Each structure stands twice: as structure tokens, then as C-alpha cells.
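Model it.
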Amino acid sequence: MKTTRSTLLLFLFLISAGCTALHKDTGSDITIMPLGEEARVTEGSIVYALPLTVFELDIAASKTIEVPGPYAKYAGEMLGLNNVITAEKETWALGGVTAKIVEELDPSQFYVIQGTTLMQTNLLALKKNGLVLDINPEVYSGTGFSNLQGSTENSALIFPDMGAAEYVSTMTDTAFRVVKADTAFIRVPYLIEMKKGMTLEQQAADAAQRLLELREGKHLILTGETNIFPQDGAALGEINRLDREYTALFAGKSMTETKHFRIWFTPVLSMVGEKRTIFKFSETGGVLPAAASSGAPVLIELTPSNKTRNLNLIVKPATSEREANTPDKLYYRVPDVVDFRISSGNETLYTGRTLIYQFGSIVTLPSNFIIGK
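Modeled.
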């Protein structure tokens, strides 16, 4: 009986030692290290990165171009127009700012999972919940943008019809040439025509006269004082178009178009508690870089909720030096909730509330701890 008990104890000891050795070997088969000078990617390794939150700002700005008419200096005396455009001018107005939140790979947070045996890891579960990212080019597939807004259609700002009935006046004069007839010389008259261009003032007077005639004719049609009535509104529409074109010869033309600009902005923790300039805006230059010497600054203010501030404090401390140095912890990032406000002066352009990963905490999880099934 004593021999049987000794044999049983020896058998249990061998099983226990074997399980301990197996656990030790299994634990050392998987290592997870930050990618850097010491870590090397070997065959069969998995590389992943932690997410980084980036603001994608879409800025709408309207550009107005003003062009003076060729007869601007005669607008007052010939048509009684005041406050007309007298010089070329380009002005900008800020329409609005919208923000889109995108996730990118944090270049400072790459990790390598290495293993010599079949690995079981919760990496896929963390990826599904957005806490880690694959090294995948699809992350950047929607971040392309061109600042080429297209050239302004200047055809609306030219003056193809100067409004005058004619631009060259013809003068007829009598000249003489001497012709020898028999023993005498006689002067024979002949007519010559000389063409002379009209001065700008003469063209303006002619255009003003035609404009007043158009307005008078439209008045007669609308009041029924004429014997000729248009069959539809096309005639009045053409009269109105000519009225606008001839008036623009004196008052000038303006055109407004809306342009969109896109800026990518990466928030950092040092911005908390202060306002940072993300770009500048000028009425003469439009959207300008944040470092520009001119323009009014457009600011962003970030207010984190600190929901994840104490996550690092509740991590269970290592019970031994061996446990502290075991490189089998899976790193992932928990974001924090942040309120943000974009403003210019006293005007609020955009407010929002979003998750910002780099404002949260980096925590670890045992690599062999499986989430879900």
C-alpha cells in the first residue's frame, strides 16, 4: 500500500512538472514588441498599428470679382448712376467650415507580433472594434483632394457689345488734282472719304442713347401705348438682357463663385486648454496657411472629457520581474471623448463631439486572452 501511494505521488509530480514546462514554453512562443531599432520583422510575423484621429476640414469660401465698365467715368453725367464699379477688385467671404473625423495609422505606434507556433490572439476582435489598425492602404483611399478649383469663367466679365451704333465716322471732302489740257492746266475736283474712330466719350453717349431708347420702348409695350405687341415674353426678355448689358457698360460687372478648400489637422495633447490656429482667412487673399503674416486666424479649441484618464492607474501591477518583462502583452488604444469648437473672432463656425484616440490611453491585454469566440 505504501509503495502504491509513493508511485501515485511520483506520477502526479511528473504531470505537474510537465504542465509547468508546457506553460512556460507556450508563453515564450509569442512576443509583442514596439517596432523600432531593436524589433525586427521576421517571417510569419504580424505588424499592426494603433489608430490616430485626424480632422479633415472642408472650408467653403466665396470669391467675388468686380470689373469696371468701359464707360464708368460717364455713368453719372449720362445715366445718373452712382456708386458704380471703378476699379478691378477681388474679395473673399468665408462661407463655413465642416469637419470630418478620420482614423489614420499612428507612425509612432507600430507593433510586431512574433510567434514560432500556432498563435491565438484577440487582434481581430480589437481590429473589429477600431482599437487597432491593419497596415492596409485602404485606410488612405478616401483622403485624396485637389486644390485646383478650376479657372474662373471670365466670359461673363467681358463686354462684347460696346453699345454704340457705330465706332468709326466717315467724313467726305472735296479734293482737286491738276490736269493738263492742251496748253493749260485745269483743276479737276473729286471726292475723298476719310474714316475717323469715335472717341470713348462719343461711344458712351451713343450707348447711353440706345439704352434710354430701349427703356422707353419697353415702357410703351408694358403700358400698351404702342401698336406692336410681342407674341410672348421672349421679346421683353431680350430687351431686359440688353438693358443689363448696356447698364453694365457704365456700372460694371461682378461675379461670385464658391470654392472649397480641404485641410487635414492632427490634434495633440499640448493643445488642450488653449486655442490653436488651423488656418487664416483674408478678404483679399481667401484661405491662407496658419503661418501666413496676414489674415484673421481661425481657431480650434479642444476640451477632452478625461473619461479614460485613469485607465493606466488600474492596470494590475506585475507580481514579479519576470512577469513585468514578459513581451506577450497586446497593446491597444482606448480613445477619449472630446468636445471641439472652431471659431473666428467671436463667431462660432463649427462645434462637435468626437472620439480622439491620441487623447486616450494605451493599455495592454494578455496576447492569449481571447475576446469572444
